[in-house]
Amino acid sequence: MQKDFHVILVEPRIPQNTGNIGRLCVACGASLHLIHPLGFSISQKEIKRAGLDYWQYLQVFEWANLKAFWETFPLSSNHFFLSTKAKKVIFDAPLQNGAFFYFGREDKGLDSTLLESNSTQVYKLPMTKNARSINLATAVSATLFEGVRQSRNY
């Protein structure tokens, strides 16, 4: 089954976040791509617990690195990189079915060279000046539901 969106977690560290994101992907018709190295084992019970009984329905893929991922899914204008350092908000991005949403490690986000080399495709979620960041699963949720809203895929 073709998925409407792709969530790419680059080197995630917290299994519970990944489990929650997996559950969210099932609910929104998205596939989940995990870019190694991971900060946990994919078989850890924390992932399964957070994903509950949804994990069996999740289309999840593991990739050795971003280069391997891009060999299958080449970069295009349909790839969006989320960062608190962005100037544009995700609500202004032209999101369509098949979009790719990239999120970085919980402790440091996406690498600055990746953001610089894809600068026209870097977006953020709007937050007050007092907030440095939000939880990764929450950021994925807001972004994915914006994609669902824009594509009217409900």
Automatic annotation (TrEMBL):
Subcellular location: Cytoplasm
Any GO CC annotation of this UniProt entry: cytoplasm
Keywords, in A-Z order: Cytoplasm, Methyltransferase, S-adenosyl-L-methionine, Transferase, tRNA processing
Gene3D superfamilies: 3.40.1280.10
Keyword Kinase among record annotations: no
Superkingdom of origin organism: Bacteria
Single GO molecular function: S-adenosylmethionine-dependent methyltransferase activity
The keyword rRNA-binding belongs to this UniProt entry's keyword annotation: no
Pfam families: SpoU_methylase
Domain tRNA/rRNA methyltransferase SpoU type: 5-144
Catalysed reactions, semicolon-separated: 5-carboxymethylaminomethyluridine(34) in tRNA(Leu) + S-adenosyl-L-methionine = 5-carboxymethylaminomethyl-2'-O-methyluridine(34) in tRNA(Leu) + S-adenosyl-L-homocysteine + H(+); cytidine(34) in tRNA + S-adenosyl-L-methionine = 2'-O-methylcytidine(34) in tRNA + S-adenosyl-L-homocysteine + H(+)
GO biological process entries: wobble position ribose methylation
Binding-site residues, S-adenosyl-L-methionine: L82, G104, L125, S133
Enzyme Commission code(s) on record: 2.1.1.207
Functional note: Could methylate the ribose at the nucleotide 34 wobble position in tRNA.
Family statement drawn from the similarity comment of this UniProt entry: Belongs to the class IV-like SAM-binding methyltransferase superfamily. RNA methyltransferase TrmH family. TrmL subfamily.
Name this protein carries in UniProt: Putative tRNA (cytidine(34)-2'-O)-methyltransferase
Organism in which the protein naturally occurs: Helicobacter saguini
Source taxonomy: Bacteria, Pseudomonadati, Campylobacterota, Epsilonproteobacteria, Campylobacterales
